Amino acid sequence: MTFSVWAPSRDRVQVRVDGRDHEMTAGAGGWWHADVPGGEARGTDYAFVLDGSDEALPDPRSAWQPDGVHGPSRVYDHSAFAWTDAAWTGRALPGAIVYELHIGTFTPGGTFDAAVERLDHLVDLGVTHVEVMPVNSFDGTAGWGYDGVLWGAVHEPYGGPDGFKRFVDACHARGLAVLLDVVYNHLGPSGAYLDRFGPYFAGSNDWGPGLNLDGEGADEVRRYVVDNALGWLRDFHVDGLRLDAVHALVDRSAVHLLEQLAVEVDALSAGLARPLTLIAESDLNDPRLVTAREAGGYGLHAQWADDLHHALHVALSGETAGYYPDFEGQLGRTLRGTFLHAGTWSSFRGRRHGRPVDPRLPGYRFLAYLQNHDQVGNRATGDRLSATVPWQRLAVGAAIVLCSPYTPMIFMGEEWAASTPWQFFASFPDPELAEAVRTGRRREFGRHGWGESEVPDPMDPETVRRSTLEWDELAEAGHRELHRVYRELIRLRRSRPELADPGLDRFEVREEGSALVLHRGDLRVVANPGQEAVVDLDVEPGELLLASDGVELVGRAVRLPADSFAVVTPRAASRPR
Fold first, then answer.
1. Alpha carbon 560 to chain centroid distance?
2. Angle at the Cα of 541 (from 540 to 546), degrees rounded to 5?
3. E strand intervals along 102-259
4. Which contiguous run of DSSP H or E holds residue 524?
5. Measured distance CA(321)–CA(319) in Å, rounded
6. Among residues 11, 16, 14, 48, which one has the least CA distance to residue 30?
7. pLDDT in tens, 521-545
8. Phi, psi at residue 488, to the nearest 5°?
9. Boundaries of each Glycosyl hydrolase family 13 catalytic domain copy (predicted)?
């Protein structure tokens, strides 16, 4: 077996294979190599010893960590897995319905195999893409996954690398594409050994040490990131990546890491003959991320659009604290422009923020959502919209998102107004680190008026249990009805192409009091998250394609009860010829 590791600043490197140390030879570019005879490749445990240290460290490029992030790495053979998805040709993002889930709380089992048992629910709902929160190795058993430290090794408690492959294979068998959330902007606080090997780190951000992307030795660090991304897409057959908080990637290079990544992913996509998607999360409100490279952008395929969430959240909940004040009464404007803050004043930041979206950009490049893991889990108690908003009003929000020109995304359980919260949790074995996270969380929300006893203990296993979906709710009143609305809205979007039309330059939004009228080709989508209203349609209505109970057509108008919506088609004679 041949072992290699990049350790440019070390004078001596050994590889410990099944408990025995072997000298490695320094090669070009700071790489060390060793050929170790004997043994079976798959299943062999190994670690690296630097400069005669007593400590053996896992491989920075490990593919398997069966004993956790502090234990040895284990050799993994990607070619040994028996894939059944040879006929899979992928799914492009235009027209997609994305569903975000967390493996550990999607089912009581909390594993990949347990999640497979619920995939048919997603197919029946009409989902096309499953976005899986990070599955890289992190310290402990339970966590969100954003404190990963070995990015290429699948978290063993979920089922390890073979378990993830079984999940992807099962998704493909059902026509579901898989998007994987990856974190390249920082490393977690426990098990981040990269800096022992070389100049991986450069400064830090709010979450931990950041990567050296433009300093001495940065070429190999960038290669580390890009190779990791390509590995998920190639070796695990993943169809795309969601790139966490790219605004925290500090890179002053002429070719930004994101552009480099987009170029290499596009090349891999051509080689595999299936679409591969890169979706960024960014708080910069900068459409250059998803602008084509030939037009001066980075060439990513899509990005999350938090301004759309914020405007929807305020309209549905009435909440105007924190970063929400600017969005009061701004739902129509935000839907039209994608970003509310587009070179305009942000009271939360105390400065101008963002850049306008060129309406020639297709709307599918922006993900729209009522909820996601951040916007729920980063609340003090992890309360969902369903904790305070009636299901009928949630259906109005769903109609706006699912009939918009943007790519809709659903957070797990949202489709039936899950009563379970989704709270912040972790399980660091180090008691000092665990206490620091616990007290830090409570101190953060204490500054906003929350008492310590009100903020859930992130280290308590009960917090994980509370955050786990209760699937029996699907059969209960209210939950059952909202689930039906989601299914019917998705089916309508897929049967009427004008509802999925991504043309922002053809998208018109008209406000009539508390109601909105979305012009979607000939169709009119009327959403009323307020009191009863009568809304002029500008056309003579023909029929209600889908509507809340109590909606009526009245001449050229529609009468909507409080918290209701309607999708209306005009009479054939009134359509322009």
1. 34
2. 165
3. 129-132, 136-137, 150-154, 177-182, 201-204, 209-211, 240-243
4. strand 523-528
5. 6
6. 11
7. 999 999 999 999 999 998 999 999 9
8. -70, -35
9. 100-443
Which residue's entry shows tokens 């590995």? 231
Its pTM stands at 0.97
3-state DSSP call for residue 271?
helix
Alpha carbons within 13 angstroms on the beta-carbon side of residue 8 total 13
The label of the residue with tokens 């069966």 reads 66
Q: Environment class of residue 106 by beta-carbon count within 10 Å: exposed (0-12), middle (13-18) or buried (19+)?
A: buried
Count Cβ atoms within 10 A of the Cβ of residue 367 and give its class: 0-12 exposed, 13-18 middle, 19 or more buried: buried
Residue type, 350: G
- Long-range contacts of residues 287-293, Cβ cutoff 8 Å, at least 24 apart: 287/338, 287/339, 287/355, 287/356, 287/357, 287/358, 287/361, 288/355, 289/246, 289/258, 290/361, 290/365, 290/366, 291/358, 291/361, 293/259, 293/262, 293/263
Please state the separation of Cα 43 from the chain's center in Å. 32
- Return all residues near 167 (Cβ < 8 A) that are at least 6 apart: 103, 112, 113, 115, 116, 132, 159, 178
The pLDDT, as a whole number, for residue 39 is: 53
Put residue 399 in one of left, alpha, beta given phi > 0 → left and psi -120 to 50 → alpha: alpha
* Amino acid of residue 175: G
What are the residue numbers of the active site? Answer: 244, 281
Q: Which helix (H) or strand (E) holds 224?
A: helix 218-235
What integer is the mean pLDDT of 194-198? Answer: 97
**Residue 525 DSSP symbol:** E
Strands (DSSP E) contained in 149-292 are 150-154, 177-182, 201-204, 209-211, 240-243, 277-280
Residue 37, classed as helix, strand or coil, is coil
The conformational region for residue 485 under phi > 0 = left, psi -120 to 50 = alpha, else beta, is alpha
Query: Across the chain, what does the average pLDDT equal?
Result: 96
pLDDT interval class at 231 (50, 70, 90): very high
pLDDT at residue 151 greater than cutoff 80: yes
Residues paired with 346 in a beta bridge? 351
Instruction: Quickly state the pLDDT bin for 573 (edges 50, 70, 90).
Output: very low
Longest dimension (CA), the chain: 86
CA distance 66 to 72: 8
**Which residues lie across from 543 on neighbouring strands?**
569
Measured CA to CA in angstroms, residue 217 lies from 7, 199, 224 at distances of 11, 6, 11
Local structure of residue 65 (DSSP, 8 states)? -
**Which burial class, exposed, middle or buried, applies to 503 when counting CB atoms under 10 A from its CB (0-12, 13-18, 19+)?**
middle
The closest of 309, 262, 259, 276 to 414, measured between CA atoms, is 309
